[in-house]
Specification:
Layout lengths: L28 E3 L9 E3 L5 H16 L3 E4 L8 H10 L1 E3 L8 H9 L8 E4 L13 H4 L8 E4 L9 H6 L3 E3 L2 H21 L1 H18 L5 H25 L7 E5 L3 H11 L7 E5 L6 H7 L1 E3 L3 H5 L4 E4 L13 H6 L4 E5 L8 H10 L2 E6 L10 H8 L9 E3 L8 H19 L18
Parallel strand pairs: 3-4, 3-5, 5-6, 6-7, 8-9, 8-11, 9-10, 11-12, 12-13, 13-14
Antiparallel strand pairs: 1-2
Length: about 450
């Protein structure tokens, strides 16, 4: 992993004597500080050496008072203007990739290598998690000065937000930035479960792939056999998929979790002018009557109650209230027979072996999973079902590679929202997207 390209030069770094100086007079340059208790500094036009030294010492002292932010993960890529504001307000320290491995990271915390930093900043989901789960062991090593942990991504099953809150640390996620991309992807997955898209796609392409991989010969006879197999697969799917496919309109869409992502899915799939599905949801906190009315959503106070009426269940909650899987064998058994299941939340929230059992038994008619319990490994039984290699119902599962939130626009938002959360908390304002205020000592 490349070393940082955007970490500002520490205040203690001397400026080389050979650094060129402009020969023309300059106007005074105001340098506003974003630190609440600090004042703006202005560079004068001309200074004696004694005055210049005093001004430099004052500037260095002001900079040294800046809160330290520990930046874990890749450099900021998409938001240079916000990062300029961010790095003016704080002294940003970015550990190397080697220092972020769990053992090395914990040693560095014990040694107080990065001082009394005030915030942890993780702007990219694909990096910055090298130290593993933020559990009590790791959180317990943080200095008392830490006030906020702002991260990319919507899910936070990798961080014990209760332990963080009890230490007085506000955890902020970036689910708001990914909501539209994830909701769009969820729409495609819901449609897949109703129209058996893996079956349709595999029948058009898989026979060619299998024949070319199993034979090193390009003899005309073998080519004709492969072509005939491909035609049969195409014709079979064309003839048989119809009886297993349905329009989503009028079916009940059951949403587990009704935050930003869940509400956007409801808006996209529930509107009469689009797919016209009937919206039902379960959440730990019921939404307002105005939200329910706007989206035509019906609240179910229990998970089993929701599962019993839904024709397609979408898991879109960022975490489990108790840290355990939500979709278990018992939950799958509570679903309507033949109902569909979509997971665009967290792989750890689903018992995948129980899901495979339910698919084999016909309890679940089709599934689509973007996230997986053992990423990057994917459950082999589900892979077989996705390829149509197991059972008598080919292509009942769509599998993707944690792609739902993966757009440029999402990553722009991850960076921006993470920085804005740190700026807000360290400047004495309310966090933009906190998720653990209920665990803060004294409550919030």
């Amino acid at each position: 992993m490349a070393e940082p390209t955007n970490t500002p030069m520490p205040a203690s770094t001397p400026v080389p004597a050979s650094t060129p100086r402009s020969g023309s007079p300059a106007r005074p340059i105001p340098i506003p500080s974003l630190t609440p208790s600090a004042t703006s500094l202005t560079l004068p036009l001309r200074q004696s050496s004694k005055t210049a030294a005093a001004a430099a010492a004052a500037a260095a002292a002001a900079i040294s008072r800046r809160p330290i932010v520990l930046h874990i993960g890749d450099p900021v890529k998409y938001n240079p203007h916000t990062y300029a504001e961010f790095s003016s307000a704080f002294e940003v320290v970015r550990p190397s990739a080697a220092e972020r491995e769990r053992g090395a990271f914990m040693r560095a915390l014990r040694e107080q290598r990065w001082g009394d930093f005030s915030a942890i900043f993780r702007p990219f989901w694909g990096s910055g998690g090298e130290m593993g789960r933020w559990d009590a062991e790791l959180v317990g090593l943080l200095p008392e000065s830490v006030r906020v942990f702002a991260s990319a991504g919507a899910g936070f099953d990798w961080a014990d937000t209760k332990v963080l809150g009890e230490r007085g640390i506000i955890y902020c996620n970036s689910g708001l930035a990914a909501a539209e991309a994830v909701a769009d992807f969820a729409v495609a997955m819901v449609i897949s479960t109703f129209r058996h898209l893996p079956w349709c796609m595999n029948a058009a392409t898989l026979p060619f792939l299998l024949s070319s991989s199993s034979s090193s010969s390009s003899a005309p006879a073998e080519s004709e056999i492969a072509a005939a197999a491909a035609r049969r697969a195409f014709q079979s799917c064309h003839a048989l998929a119809t009886a297993a496919s349905h329009n989503p309109r009028g079916h009940v869409l059951g949403l587990i979790g009704f935050g930003n992502v869940g509400q956007q899915i409801a808006a996209k799939l529930g509107h009469p002018a689009t797919f016209g599905m009937r919206i039902a949801y379960h959440d730990v906190v019921r939404k307002s009557a105005s939200v329910e009315a706007a989206l035509g959503a019906t609240f179910h106070p229990t998970l089993d109650g929701l599962l019993g009426v839904a024709d397609c269940v979408v898991l879109c909650t960022p975490a489990s209230p108790d840290g355990r899987p939500i979709v278990t064998a018992e939950a799958l058994g509570a679903m309507r027979r033949g109902a569909r299941f979509v997971n665009i939340a967290r792989g750890s929230l689903v018992d995948e072996e129980a899901l495979a059992d339910a698919l084999e038994a016909g309890q679940v008619g089709a599934a689509a999973l973007d996230v997986h319990a053992e990423e990057p490994a994917v459950n082999r039984r589900l892979v077989g079902m996705a390829l149509g290699l197991e059972g008598d119902r080919p292509g009942t599962v769509m599998l993707t590679c944690h792609n739902a939130g993966g757009t440029v626009e999402t990553h722009v938002g991850f960076e921006e929202l993470s920085m804005r959360n740190v700026l807000a908390v360290l400047q004495g304002r309310e966090a933009v997207t906190p998720v653990n205020l209920q665990f803060l000592v004294g409550g919030s």
